[in-house]
Design goal:
alpha+beta; 7-stranded antiparallel sheet; 9 strands; 13% strand
Length: 413
C-alpha cells in the first residue's frame, strides 16, 4: 500500500514542476493581457475619430497639406503619440532618429511618461529596455537614424507585447518575395519576416526591403499606426488559391503550406490536391513537414486503405512531390504504379489533370507515355530503363523484369 505522506509529497513535486514549466507561458499571456488593457483606450479613441477631427489635427502642420501620410500624421497627433518640430512643421520626409521612433512605439503601447532629467527621450528608452523592446547596449547613438531592418525589429518586439507571433509556415514564402533578403543582417532576418507576416512592414514597388535605408518620419508614423490598428495592415501572404491546405488523414491536423523558392513543384502540389477528388476510387493527399513532401495515395476504397493499415498492401499508385527548394533534389516528382489496371480504371483523370499543369502544351505526349507504361507493365517479362524529355523536363521510366511495378521520375526543368 502506498504511503499517504509519500503520495502527497510526490504530488506536490509534480505540481511544482508543472508550475515551473508553465510559468513563462503564463507570464507572457499576463503581459499581453496587461498591454492590451493599457492600449485599449488609444484604440477606442482612434476608432471614434471623425474625418473632421483628423483634418483639423493635420492642419497644425503646414508642410503636410498634400503629403501621402497626412491622415496618419493627423491621427497619431490627436492620440498624443507624435509631435511636430519646434518651428511648427512636421518634416514628414526627414529621417527619424532612434529616440523619436522608440518614443512613438512606447507611447503607442499606452504609456504616458513624464520627462525625467534633461534628455527628453530617456524615460521612454528606459521603458523600452525594461519591456525588452530593445536591449541596453543595442543602440550606440539614440540621436541617429535607424536602419529599416533595425526599425522592423523594434516594432515587432513592441507588437509581441500585444499579440503572439505569426505562423512560421509562411516565412519561406516571404523570403521568396523579398529580392534583397540575403542583404538583411542575420540577427534581423527573423524580425523582418515577422514584420512582413504581420503587415507592419512592406517592400517598395519593386518588392525590395532596402534593409540599410533609414525611415522617414512619415513612414515611421504609418508603421506605428499599423501597430495600433490591425485593420490597416496588409500582411504578405498568398491568395487562398495559392495556399495549400492539407488535412492529415491520421491526426486531423491541418497543414497550411505556402510556396517557397520552387514555385514549379508547389503549383503541381496544388494541382494534385485540387484534383485528387477526380479519382473514382479512394485517394487522398498527405504532407510530411520534415521531408517537405506532398504525396498522393490511390486506392480502390477506404476499406482497402484501412486493410493496408493492418499490413496488407492494396495501394494502386503513389505520387510524391518534394516542394522544398533544396538544389540537391534532382527529381522532385516520383510516381510509382503498383496496379496498372486499377490506375487505368480509377485514377487516370487525376494524372491527366496534373500532367496538364506540369507539361502544358506537351501534356498529351506525357499522358500518352504514361498510358504506354500502364499497358506495358501488365507484361511482367517486359523491362525498361529509358529517359525522355518532354516540355523541358527529363523523365526516367524504370521497370524491372518479372515485376508489374514501374516508376516514373520527373526532374526539374
Amino acid at each position: 500500500m502506498v504511503d499517504k505522506k509519500a503520495y502527497i509529497s510526490i504530488l506536490l513535486i509534480i505540481v511544482t514542476a508543472l508550475m515551473v514549466v508553465c510559468q513563462p507561458a503564463l507570464a507572457e499571456e499576463m503581459n499581453q493581457s496587461t498591454a492590451e488593457y493599457r492600449v485599449q483606450p488609444l484604440r477606442e479613441k482612434l476608432t471614434a475619430l471623425t474625418d473632421m477631427d483628423i483634418a483639423n489635427s493635420a492642419k497644425r502642420f503646414p508642410d503636410i497639406s498634400k503629403h501621402w501620410a497626412r491622415t496618419n500624421i493627423g491621427k497619431l497627433t490627436i492620440l498624443g503619440i507624435i509631435n511636430g518640430m519646434p518651428d511648427g512643421t512636421f518634416k514628414p520626409d526627414k529621417a527619424i532618429n532612434a529616440d523619436g521612433y522608440i518614443t512613438m512605439a512606447v507611447r503607442a503601447l499606452g504609456y504616458k511618461l513624464e520627462q525625467d532629467g534633461s534628455y527628453w527621450a530617456q524615460v521612454y528608452i528606459d521603458k523600452a529596455i525594461k519591456d525588452k523592446i530593445i536591449d541596453k547596449d543595442e543602440i550606440k547613438n539614440y540621436k541617429s537614424p535607424l536602419s529599416r531592418e533595425h526599425a522592423a525589429t523594434i516594432i515587432v518586439k513592441a507588437l509581441m507585447q500585444l499579440e503572439t507571433g505569426p505562423n512560421s509556415n509562411i516565412y519561406d514564402y516571404i523570403r521568396s518575395k523579398i529580392p534583397d533578403y540575403p542583404a538583411i543582417s542575420d540577427n534581423y532576418k527573423q524580425y523582418v519576416l515577422q514584420a512582413y507576416a504581420t503587415g507592419l512592414f512592406a517592400g517598395n514597388s519593386g518588392g525590395y526591403f532596402l534593409p540599410a535605408n533609414t525611415l522617414t518620419r512619415a513612414e515611421a508614423t504609418t508603421i506605428i499606426l499599423r501597430l495600433l490598428d490591425s485593420s490597416v495592415r496588409k500582411p504578405l501572404k498568398p491568395t487562398d488559391s495559392d495556399a495549400l491546405k492539407i488535412t492529415d488523414i491520421y491526426s486531423g491536423k491541418i497543414y497550411e503550406i505556402y510556396p517557397s523558392g520552387n514555385l514549379d513543384t508547389f503549383k503541381t502540389a496544388v494541382a494534385l490536391n485540387k484534383n485528387i477528388g477526380k479519382s473514382k476510387g479512394y485517394s487522398f493527399v498527405s504532407y510530411s513537414p520534415f521531408a517537405q513532401t506532398v504525396s498522393g495515395s490511390f486506392y480502390a476504397s477506404k476499406e482497402d486503405f484501412e486493410s493496408y493499415q493492418n499490413g496488407e498492401l492494396k495501394v494502386h499508385m503513389g505520387f510524391s512531390i518534394n516542394i522544398s527548394d533544396d538544389p540537391s533534389v534532382e527529381f522532385p516528382y516520383l510516381i510509382t504504379v503498383y496496379d496498372s489496371a486499377k490506375v487505368a480504371e480509377l485514377h487516370m483523370d487525376v494524372i491527366s489533370t496534373v500532367f496538364k499543369e506540369m507539361f502544358a502544351d506537351e501534356s498529351d505526349t506525357a499522358i500518352s507515355l504514361f498510358e504506354h507504361y500502364i499497358k506495358m507493365s501488365s507484361d511482367k517479362s517486359s523491362v525498361s530503363d529509358e529517359t525522355k524529355t518532354i516540355s523541358g523536363r527529363k523523365i526516367r521510366i524504370f521497370k524491372l523484369e518479372g515485376d508489374s511495378v514501374f516508376s516514373m521520375w520527373i526532374y526539374n526543368k
